[in-house]
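ok, trying the design again with the full structure, not the truncated one.
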């Protein structure tokens, strides 16, 4: 059975109190629309359609970036979820399979649940994904009669008796394309919100003698994001889930609750993650690497056996090979650090290539930016960079070269050479005492004045 997915993302999200369209609010650094598209990915849909409206260009750009094959349709005015689905009809002209409707604000539907929905379609013309809510709040309520789903009543339209129902609508619906579009044509807007509700499909399906059913899933999967409070809850839910699955995959955490993931963070088995570590987007930590406390890592790749932190910052393009050591208050950006190299204290390494087993002394800086452009620093294998060396890029330091502590290196240092770039030291004998006496006198005079 071929399948098309329609993701509704046209709403403004009034309850978010935001200038940003709701679909672009982020959970674990990825926009809601990305989570919804990812949830739909296992279905291997023949077509994926995203319905955009409010801030259409911004939402389109993000959706296309995630999947260039996605089809975009516009909903000029947001007249309700049924009206939104209706806009997808021309894009699905001639399509004869099943349609699965997802809401962009419902980001966590699992692969297993998607499979359960598909399987349930074998026995029912219309499948709705529902859940038992702890606190049903403003969700639509599912009115059932045995296994048959009779109708969905929106919170605003529900009687007290209906509001007492705890079985709620997730927003996910699956049916054939034919049935969906013929039902949608019949949906009106005579309800408390004056909107065209997609949820009215259930009532219409029953009237047409079709079979309907509810597939249930965990409430955690159907969390709908309508407000900032929901967004914060969704973030917390994502983080707990990411921690639990990382633990199940063999990662050691000293305090899992203090570690924060991005939607795409990958951590290999036997890695150790200490307390208060934050992973930004695009990070891979290989097996057996050790991330020490209070480190911030994004867009970085950390190979096996590397040790990072405490208090390290890895920025996009940081590539750490095996057994690299990055210590406290070290920042690395767009730099390849070869096997066994060490940058242990208080350094900035950006736009650089650091050779195998090189040692970068405390307080050293690659001066990569001239105020206009970025320049590259290359440091050879086994090079020893003395503490507080300023490497004014573009500059190359050869294999086995040494730079003297406190040097400002403005020219290349050849292999095996010692680069000294600092003023000669002069010792003025007895001058320390003299200087102190002068200062004391000045101070006394000031007190008398
Ligand atoms: C909807 C359901 C409700 C369900 C809840 C689950 C309806 C009528 N109600 O309510 O039964 O319990 O989701 O989270 O479907 N959208 C458009 N165009 C529109 C209106 C909405 O694209 O004209 C999109 C929104 O961007 C959003 C989704 O559809 O992604 C759902 O809309 P929303 O307003 O959040 O509906 P809820 O009130 O949450
Ligand atoms: Mg919603």
């Amino acid at each position: 059975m071929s399948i098309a997915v329609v993701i509704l993302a046209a709403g403004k999200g009034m309850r978010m109190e935001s200038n940003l369209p709701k679909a672009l609010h982020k959970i674990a650094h990825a926009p809601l629309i990305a989570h919804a598209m990812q949830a739909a990915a296992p279905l291997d849909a023949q077509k994926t359609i995203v319905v955009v409206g409010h801030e259409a260009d911004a939402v389109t750009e993000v959706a296309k970036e995630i999947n260039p094959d996605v089809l975009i349709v516009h909903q000029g005015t947001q007249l309700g979820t049924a009206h939104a689905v209706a806009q997808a009809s021309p894009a699905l002209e001639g399509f004869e399979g099943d349609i699965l409707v997802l809401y962009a604000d419902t980001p966590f539907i699992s692969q297993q649940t998607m499979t359960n929905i598909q399987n349930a379609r074998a026995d029912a013309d219309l499948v709705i994904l529902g859940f038992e809510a702890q606190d049903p709040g403003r969700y639509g309520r599912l009115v059932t009669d045995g296994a048959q789903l009779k109708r969905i009543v929106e919170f605003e339209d529900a009687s007290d008796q209906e509001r007492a129902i705890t079985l709620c609508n997730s927003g996910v619906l699956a049916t054939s394309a034919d049935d969906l579009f013929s039902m949608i044509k019949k949906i009106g807007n005579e309800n408390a919100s004056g909107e065209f509700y997609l949820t009215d499909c259930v009532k219409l399906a029953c009237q047409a003698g079709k079979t309907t059913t509810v597939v249930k899933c965990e409430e955690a999967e159907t969390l709908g994001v309508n407000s900032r409070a929901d967004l914060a809850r969704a973030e917390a839910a994502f983080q707990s889930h990411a921690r639990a699955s990382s633990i199940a995959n063999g990662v050691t955490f000293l305090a899992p609750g203090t570690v924060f993931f991005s939607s795409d963070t990958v951590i290999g088995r036997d890695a150790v993650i200490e307390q208060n570590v934050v992973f930004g987007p695009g990070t891979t930590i290989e097996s057996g690497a050790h991330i020490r406390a209070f480190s911030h890592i994004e867009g970085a790749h950390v190979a096996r056996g590397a040790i990072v932190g405490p208090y390290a910052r890895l920025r996009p393009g940081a590539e750490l090979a095996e057994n690299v050591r990055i210590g406290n208050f070290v920042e690395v950006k767009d730099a390849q650090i070869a096997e066994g190299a060490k940058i242990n204290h208080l350094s900035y390494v950006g736009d650089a290539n650091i050779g195998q087993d090189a040692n970068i002394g405390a307080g050293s800086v690659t001066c990569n930016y001239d105020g206009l452009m970025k320049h590259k620093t290359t440091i050879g294998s086994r090079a020893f960079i003395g503490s507080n060396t300023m490497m004014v890029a573009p500059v190359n330091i050869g294999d086995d070269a040494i730079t003297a502590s406190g040097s400002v290196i403005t020219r290349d240092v050849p292999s095996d050479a010692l680069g000294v770039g600092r003023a000669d030291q002069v010792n003025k004998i007895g001058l320390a005492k003299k200087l102190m006496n002068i200062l004391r006198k000045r101070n006394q005079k000031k007190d008398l004045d």
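Keeping the full-length input from now on. The radius of gyration is 31 Å.
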